[in-house]
Amino acid sequence: MQLQNQKHLFDLPKDITYLNIASQSPAFQAIYEAGLEGLKQKNRPYTIKGSDYFEPVVTLKKLFAKLIDANNYNSIVSIPSASYAIATVTNNIVLKEGDEILVIEEQFPSNYYSWQKLAETYNATIITVGKKEGEHWNTNVLNAITNKTAVVAIGNIHWSNGSLFNLKAISTKAKQQNALVIIDGSQSVGALPFSVKEIQPDALICAGYKWLFGPYGCAYAYYGEYFNNGKPIEENWSNRLDSENFAGLTNYQNQYKPLANRYQVGESGNFIHVKMQIAALKQVLEWTPKAIQEYCKEISAEAVKELKALGCKIEADDQRTHHLFGIELPENINLDVLKENLVNNHIFVSFRGNYIRVSCHVFNTKEDFIPLINCLKKHM
Length: 380
Known about the structure:
Layout: E1 17-18, H1 29-43, H2 55-68, E2 76-79, H3 82-90, E3 100-104, H4 113-122, E4 125-129, H5 137-144, E5 149-155, H6 167-176, E6 180-184, H7 196-199, E7 203-207, E8 219-223, H8 271-287, H9 289-310, E9 324-328, H10 335-344, E10 347-348, E11 350-352, E12 355-359, H11 369-377
Parallel strand pairs: 1-10, 3-4, 3-5, 5-6, 6-7
Antiparallel strand pairs: 2-8, 7-8, 9-12, 11-12
Helix pairs in contact: 1-8, 2-8, 9-11
């Protein structure tokens, strides 16, 4: 399926150049309407049925399971943030002294601090994999995995510049060393095809308010077999067996619902959020991540060539994604003045580390890159 521009579904003014979905996605009409339905339900709480706390959550988990090619929706939980899911993971890992946890240079903080704490607890070591010019991330990551590696905690892509990691090769080598593979898909799942069956991560964690178009305060996690009998970081009533029977809730139940359900956050049946998330995932599945990626490649290709001609450094096409890429600028540019000019021209991008992070989607066109290029030309 070849996607056409979808800007008609969004409420983005014509004078706004929005290339910053990696920071926060705009809502499209169906999400807006779903949120209103949730508000109406809150206005009239007598319309809320017992099943409304559970059935929409199951629907949501089934949609996410389909998106990531997971067999069982009971391996999926909805949560408030990626850091919540990573805290759940580290809560269920016991290390030996001298074990190594492998992370990427300049990894997102929510996927670092919990690992740092875990390493301190067990006197383990954080191994940070970087790369110099002319080197390849994947080679360096694979070389860093040894018999000391206990955990590989990595994104599908680098969050600041779009560098693409070969997760299949990384996962295969990690499992040969009996290391856990924990994937942060926050900047890729939804815009780039991902298969749990192919990659076989022990956990996949995704913020929900970027490429999955959910409201801020929602996320998803897939937990594999390793975590089937683990310890949740909270105990809430809805994750226990037979919790649908409200009259029997004080017949306290020792057993959790099957598989990953024990990790579901309390109040996961949030009527407003869940309705919005369902509408969002249905649309993403209709577009398909593959078609989204191809669309982003098509609309950004000419801009990338022009930016490189100006002297900007961008990863090679086959080493990065196309929905998100980083522009490394020459050192002599005054970034404060550049940022001010971008704001004055209503151009929205992110500054992450040494990069301008550009992120596009189906609401963008080739023409959206022209104001950005023109602005950069004035500073080169």
